[in-house]
Amino acid sequence: MSNLDIVKPENLVYKKSNVLTENVMHYCPGCGHGTAHRLVAEVIEELGIQDKTVGVSPVGCSVLAYNYLDVDFQEAAHGRAPAVATAIKRLNPDCYVFTYQGDGDLAAIGTAETIHACNRGENITMIFINNAIYGMTGGQMAPTTLLGMKTATTPYGRDQKLNGWPFQVTELLAQLPGTYYVTRQSVHTPANVRKAKAALKKAFENQKLEKGVSFVEIVSSCNSGWKMTPVQANKWMEENMFPQYPLGDIKVDGELVKK
Amino acid sequence: MAKELKLMKGNEAIARAMIASGADGYFGYPITPQSEVMETLMAERPWDPNGDNYTGMVVLQAESELASINMVYGGAATGKKVATSSSSPGISLMAEGLTYLAGAEIPCVIMNAMRGGPGLGTIQPAQSDYFQSTKGGGHGDYQLYVMAPSSVQEMYDFVFDAWDIAFKYRNPVLILTDGAIGQCMEKCYTRDNVPRWTEEERRAKAPWGTWGKPASRGHNIITSLELESSRQEVFNQKLQAKYAEMKEKEVRYEALNCDDADYIFVSYGTSARICMKSMELARAKGLKVGLLRPITLYPFPSKQIAELAKRVKGMLCVEMSAGQMIEDVKLAAECKIPIEHYGRFGGIIPTPEEVLEAMENKIIK
Amino acid sequence: MTEEIIIAGFGGQGVLSMGKILAYSGVMEDKEVLWMPSYGPEQRGGTANVTVIVSDERISSPIISKFDTAIVLNQQSLDKFEKSVKPGGMLIYDPNGITHEPTRRDINIYKIPATEKATEKGIAKVFNMIVLGGFLKLKPIVGSEFIHKGLEKSLPARHHALIPQNEEAIELGKTLIEPVFTL
Question: Are A75 and B224 in contact (CB under 8 A)?
Answer without folding.
Answer: yes
